[in-house]
Queue: 4 jobs
Job 1
Amino acid sequence: MKPILPVILAGGSGTRLWPLSRALYPKQLINLVDRQTMLQNTLQRLNGLDAAIDPMVICNDEYRFMVAEQLRQIHVHPSAIILEPVGRNTAPALAVAALWAMRNGDDPVLLVLPADHHIQSADHFQRALTTGYDHARSGRLITFGIVPRSPETGYGYIKMGPPLSRDDNPGTAVAIDAFVEKPDLETARGYVDSKAYCWNSGMFMFSASKALAALETFVPEIVAACRAAIDKGTADLDFFRLDRDAFSKSPSDSIDYAVMERTENGAMVPMSAGWNDLGSWEALWQVGEKDAADNVVKGDVVLHDVSDSYLHAESRLLAAVGLKDHIVVETSDAVMISPRDRVQDVKGLVDRLKMRNREETRTHKRIYRPWGTVDQLVSGNRFQVNRLTVKSGGALSLQRHYNRSEHWIVVRGTALVTRDGEQFVLKEDSSTYIEAGIAHRLENPGKIPLEVVEVQTGAYIGEDDIIRLEDLYGRHRQEN
């Protein structure tokens, strides 16, 4: 049996789920439905799939440490985490996956899955994958279509052709008659009523060699750029970093446009597994657990006369009166309110915020680092107060700042401090002062998380006022 290599596409920013999803903390890395993140759920629904081997994850360079940590939390050991220096859509990602998978003469079946899909029935999902695997082994290029439950205008559709004969391969699969763009509502109703169309899920399955051959036939310039990006790429700790110049020369294209709409070897496996791509707050309301008034409630929320709404509180009490069919999302630095039938306009709202260079589109008050987290508590003229949480064994880089000084107060755990060549231990309720220009490092030698209140003071406290001298995570090499 050919092994199945899951290829998890973990790029993208999910702007329609702002203010939870942001450029540096996108929806695939957030626990939107349950306690697991979307990435973790994507991987865990593959548990028990015959022939599946350790997955490959392709993601944005800036997500690398969050991705690695989330895999570690669920005890997944990836075969590779490949870093894209720029976004180029799914066809170049597939080319990279196929080239990488075949570099040692192997030819696994690639199972290409976006990291941000919600699927209610893992059993139905795996049955569809088994069918797709049978056809992929025989040389077909498989896409998975979702049997529509309603006339959605936010998805592309695939028109089903005739069933594949059993002589071709066992199981339920159909030829692809046509790919169609996102329709208007009346057209979508016609598609659903005809029972001849499926939603386009963006999930695929094919052998690496067949995928690469199709790419070389239809988009050879993409393959050439991706081959060069791998040849000139570099290993960096547990990651592989594609060469920026080479990868940037690749055209940006989707698997659908580049291959599936042009090949005569494509087929579709229809799937009914409770699929949703969670592309909007309305989608989260649809899949969420509802109370007696059909509200989906997350966090510290108190309601009076509210119905058919989604209310999410991150950092404080959220109280609402007299709402119907609304979305209210609160984070520590932003509140978003929208009627449920206007949630597709959130992307336009984010575009306006980007035009104003609002930092709220990029990151949260909580910032994830390879060693732990930084919570920005309060800032003002010439000062900022943070809470640092350093995981066991974690260490900040050996660094210096030229424009700010830092005061560290240990509130939990034990800190090992390096300051101007001297090392010493700080226990709970003790503190130290790091003067501007002094080389320093903070480490957690203990078994419990280290929590430190950091007070930064100075004429300039921007994050770019940092010179990394040494770093366990290789960030000083990228900066230099």
Job 2
Amino acid sequence: MSNLPTIFVDEVGITLGNIADAASGAITPTLRIGVTGLSRAGKTIFITALIHNLLSGATLPGFQAMTQGRLIGAQLTEHPDNATPRFAYENHLAALLGTPPTWPESTRRISQVRLTLRYQSDRWLKNRMGLSTLNLDIVDYPGEWLLDLPLLSKSFRQWSDEALDLAQRPNREEEATPFLEALKATDTMAQADETAAETLALAFTQYLRASKQDARALSTLPPGRFLMPGDLEGSPALTFAPLPKPSHAPRSNSLYAMLERRFEAYKTVVIRPFFRDHFARLDRQIVLVDALRALNAGPEAVSDLENALTSVLACYRQGRVNPISRILNRRIDKILFAATKADLLHHTSHAKLEAILNRLVMNATRRARFAGAQTQSLAIAAIRATREGRIKDNGDTLDTIIGTPEQGQVLGDTTYDGETEIALFPGDLPDSPESLFKTDESTPELNFLRFLPPTDLQRSETGEPIFPNIRLDRAIDYLIGDKLQ
């Protein structure tokens, strides 16, 4: 079940891909999990932590296959897709274990990695020894690319109207003004000119990037490849911008007509291959949501994040399928919504964070469940950067988090040097998530900073470093636990 229009060629490509997956999994079953979220939601950290915990056999109390002693082990195996870059697990782990440790680079393109899990099955029909194997393919892709999927159902005119309406809203005025002024100075009905197209595309891209910064933390910023162009940077397919409605039918050689053709080319060259080759072939999905960043920026950012999540999650092919029909028609049967960076809050606020997440994805959850898919929400930290403590303040006892803010982080009049450990009271999340959408005295004062990775890690019995986490075990169990029975 998806809102996306597809063409015959798309469906043929999706079916052929599913058949190829089924053939390769005839001996060893394969589960494909998509990991996504808007930038800085923690995708790379989540995947690195997931892989490391499974490879090292770290203790994961909420992961039933492990606590029951049925998980024999895991190992990285041959990369299954020669056309997709491999997730650079080793490089990301090295960054986290460096001196000093640093967070790994953010996701900027699609990547994939395969883990093979060996486990003791409790279903004796699998084989006489009860030992089974599962290939776990983890597909990592920027959430900004998801924002492009709804464009498949829109014309250039429709997208332009929506984009310009957003750009003219008061909360985007500062960032959008240079682009809007460049647009006013351009005769879009004049003969097509490459310099004019590049000028508008650059101004539009700069507006999108400025809106994405922490001060605004806006999310509804398609086209996503304008923010993460990869090897398409500078190509005609990425050199267009929204234009106002023309007063008369544009000539085929006009600037307007050229940018309209490039918008359609963007859909053909960029969006459809992503949807066909990767997105439509997933079995399960975790959506990482950096709700705290939006809360820090205020009600407009929270509302914009809700709109972005609702829009992109309507694009999923969701629902249950039986093993036979799955060969031709893959569906996502489980979605996990995860509010990341729970370590920036005291544990007493985690239930409120989950309530906020549930409010943000309310519409998407209803749609998924109607289609037959299961959903769950969790507040997590795949790698915990803080610990908890308490401080006295004017006779009151405050629950705090303790850690070292990244260099350049600012709170009030203080700019942190990246070396000083602090105890921070991040503020109280509201009892009602609805208050976060209102700009009035009910809006809570919140303080969320970015902290450096943990140091002085504990070691497992085999000497492997153990990263502290919050509910990573429960996330893993929800995503793959039923496949290890």
Job 3
Amino acid sequence: MKHLPKIVSIFLLFIGSALAQQEKGVIGNSNWLSSWTEFRPDLVEYNEANEILTGIISTDTKLLKRNTYMLLGDVFVTNGAVLTIEPGTVIIGDFKTKGSLTITKGATIIANGLETDPIIFTSNRSVKKAGDWGGIIILGDAPINTYGNGVLTGYNFATDASIDISYGGENLESNAGILRYVRIEYAGKRTRDGDNFNALLLAGVGTETTIDNVMVSYSAGNSFDIYGGELYLEKLVSYKSNRIDYNFNYGTQSNLFNSLAVRSSYVSSSKGSRCLNIASYEKGEDVSFIKQETAVTALNLTLVNISDDLDYEIKLDLVKEAVFIGNDASLSMKESVISGFSPAVLIDNSVRVNNENLKKIMFQKMYFNNCNGNIFKEYNSDNEDLENWYGNSSFFNVYSKGLDSETFIDIKNDNRLDFRLRINKILASNID
């Protein structure tokens, strides 16, 4: 028994190291990405469609795994109907007609996939590309901060004008259904006004809606758009989106937990591409300032720009900020990783740098790695005040320079990508 203290010490060191590994960024005792995600969807072949979804679905409908469905044009679920999708079902968005699926206010989608049998929304083209089809839109009656209800604009829906495509209301618990173990691939088709569909738009959706384990890959528009409402979002993945990975706007009160955004400099749009965008409005005159401003709590995120030559891409101005915070919005971000951006965070130029505003923009226990600058105000190269504030030891923020291969467990194996931090990388880093 004389070796017991040594054995106990080794055991405690192992436990402590394991906890350290899970402290920042995406967490999990195992790699939760390994079973249901797909980082090479271009190599996956699906059956041709044998069922068509088109027009209006106004009665309860169930999609079966044994069939492959095509979204032909704009498809709407209305009249309080429930659209249920079996695990393993494949739904293909039509390229020619800009296939899309909209769950209108009062209707419900139950897309409750399984870890071993996810539900797939993808493109019908033989050579798939970002923007092949529209996307998924879910509308609810939870609060938003605009005057009156919001109405979808810019999508050019060619359908019955009697369909209600408004969102927002007073029902904080607005339940639009379930999206769990769902993959959305190659969405974001361009609209007639020159903008893009978003892969998944959640507008006025409330607390009783379940959104977890959803992966968006190769979207030509934003991956996840959240307008108003109140949501708890967990284990989301945005992979190589052209635009914004997670966009929060119009007074949403949202929590984003244990989620991932992976960017590539060469697929980002010049129209604005970042991992996290926090705003309360597009135009101030459109919103009521007596209503809640957008407030987001982000915990255990990993935001990473994958690059083989980051310095060169920065010189070409291909690399932008990871996080942008607009005026009249708040973000509390903790225990997260931001790696490979220029800079890590950008605050809107109209935000005054004072104690009141900085208390609304919190970064604590963060891991800033290999970024060309950390936290700046827009159009201002002098960030000394911000560095002094967020660099205070009471925030426990960590700053490091390291290769992706040294920072993350495994980001080279497409079959089992693992974006959890390496144990020794956290332990060896210094706090500035």
Job 4
Amino acid sequence: MDSTIDLLQNEISRLRALMDSSQSALYLLKPVYGGQGQITDFTFVVVNKKLSAFVGQEPEALRGTHYSQWFPQYRTNGIFEYYCRAFAQLTPLQFEHHYINDDTDSWLTLEASRMGDELQVTFLDITENKRIQYQLEATIHQIKNSNENLEQFAYIASHDLQEPLRKLQAFGDVLQSQFADSLVDGEIDLVRRIQNSAKRMQVLVRDLLTYSRLSTQTEPFENISLSRLIKEVLNDLEIMITEKQATVRVSALPNLLGNPLRLRQLFQNLVANAIKFQKPDQKPLIQISARHAAPNELPEELKPQEQRLFLLVEVADNGIGFDEKYKSRIFQPFQRLESRSTYSGTGIGLAICKKVAEIHGGVIDVSSQVGQGSTFKVFLPVYGRTS
């Protein structure tokens, strides 16, 4: 008999140690009934140290006392109603509660479930998690507002710049056509420089408008024949391809879900860059292919989604290439690795490619070697069957 009692006491001690080691408050409540048979309060039966610390009392001081003695507001703040509901139903009841009194301002997550004639309750203080959540939400809201303001500013500034630039070019045309005989060589060269600068500025403004609209305009996705889209891109670039004597080889390409206008912008920029960034004595060779990406091929940004299926479209060229330590830089707006005098452009084309890939839920990556060419890799998620 003594050994049985000792064993039982050991088990109770172990259970008590287990309860007291919990990061959650654990306790059992027994309902107190009024004259009409309705529950009017609860009393503490078992209490762990987490709850007693929350109240600021030893566990022995709580056992057998009424819940309302230590939490007088629980009748009016909704907790009492939750406990009564949990005691009346068969399934556990979970809820969050913002607990406020004169000394405490805490967020709690509670779970209450009936065990025979008693109610088992656990709660965890999630105040710090809530604080971090609110900070993140506030930061996201600030970033969203900032991005919207920047996009709106870019659009307005670019749009308002268009008209004065058109006037600059028009006045230059008038000077050249109507007053050419009155201008000396230096003045003619000055007019030419003004017009060239206005043209470059117009291209920059146009690209800036395109980039800003990518974030402010959303179009629905549709089933796209990538083969047909690439064919249209090559038709648009026909003059450039002919002038540079470029060869473009296109493998069999699948269908995909996306926005045709945005994807055309992406691949037109990639092919145009592959033709443009060449050594003077070399004919461009561009190869376009597509396949499903293996999980170990996915860039870091897509690693959390490695269970998804991604289409990998590669645009490879034999151009001048670049040092890969600069590869994150080339996708930023207005970042250039080559001088403007050698290779024309505004430095925003690859930023547009990056934004288009992101709009489609994918990313763009690149591998390159100086003098050996580059391979741009566009990863696009596969949204079910499209063929």
